[in-house]
Amino acid sequence: MANVTLNNGVIMPQEGFGVFQVNDLKECERAVSEALAVGYRSIDTAQAYGNEAAVGQAIKASGIKREDIFLTTKVWVSNAGYDKAKASIAQSMAKLQTDYLDLVLIHQPFGDYYGTYRALEELYKAGQIRAIGVSNFYPDRYVDLVKNMDVVPAVNQLETHVFNQRQTDRVFLDKYGTQIESWGPFAEGKNNLFHNPTLTKIGQQYDKTAAQVALRFLIQSGVVIIPKSTHKERMQQNINIWDFELSAADLEQITALDTGKSLFLDHYAGKTAENFNDRKL
């Protein structure tokens, strides 16, 4: 598996394991334990997922050295603002049973995210967080944050998959040196991704599934991925994408699948802002 080097020199695995919507704590602990056993060394969670404690317990029980695991969490909107963010991050560390975090992201571009980012900068400079960043920040808010803060975000985690390849976002992320990371690399199966004719046909050349081709396209495009599964055999399939390489012709065909639109939600919509601001942890 390859790594990426973030803009502050921190090394991050290019493939990790996500636990979004793994709400049952016992199931989450089992899934993370199996992911670590399969070979994942990057785990992505969030305050809003409600499973940080299960992630922490799985890591502790694994026997793997803490420094060998890249651990990410995210600050939710109801914890936004300098004081609340600092307190919530301390709570996250306690739940995760760690005295430092590898990456902390602002989960959504709502609430007092400037205050949150100031808290992240302070903890970063104090060495409690190795890298800081954002999630779901579209170019306007991302650039505005870059222009008004001391530390350029190391990561921006965005909905990124073969149907929404974030070409416009990447112009600005590349300009300012922020690593793109994908949430929803399978588009949660929308647009029939797992049986897409283009992905399936390409996969047949390499004895790979459409899902594996979709992941391989992202990593060859320089994207960090965090696919989720609660099935060990699929965890293994998702990590078995490092033994083949898509050709230029393959990449061209998959690039043509891009619609340039979200399949889930619009962060510019007033209803989206209402929903995220109204959700309290």
UniProtKB/TrEMBL annotation:
Annotated CDD domains: AKR_AKR5F1
Keyword NADP: yes
Keywords annotated in UniProt: NADP, Oxidoreductase
Source taxon at top rank: Bacteria
Active site positions: Y49 (proton donor)
GO molecular function terms noted in the UniProt entry: oxidoreductase activity, acting on the CH-OH group of donors, NAD or NADP as acceptor
InterPro entries: AKR (IPR020471), Aldo/ket_reductase_CS (IPR018170), NAD(P)_OxRdtase_dom_sf (IPR036812), NADP_OxRdtase_dom (IPR023210)
Residue ranges occupied by any NADP-dependent oxidoreductase domain in the UniProt entry: 24-258
Marked site: Lowers pKa of active site Tyr: K74
Pfam families referenced in this protein's UniProt entry, alphabetically: Aldo_ket_red
SUPFAM superfamilies for the chain: NAD(P)-linked oxidoreductase
Positions of substrate binding: H107
PANTHER family recorded: 2,5-DIKETO-D-GLUCONIC ACID REDUCTASE (PTHR43827), NADP-DEPENDENT OXIDOREDUCTASE DOMAIN-CONTAINING PROTEIN (PTHR43827:SF3)
Family as reported in the entry's similarity comment: Belongs to the aldo/keto reductase family.
Listed name of the protein: Aldo/keto reductase
Native source species: Bombilactobacillus bombi
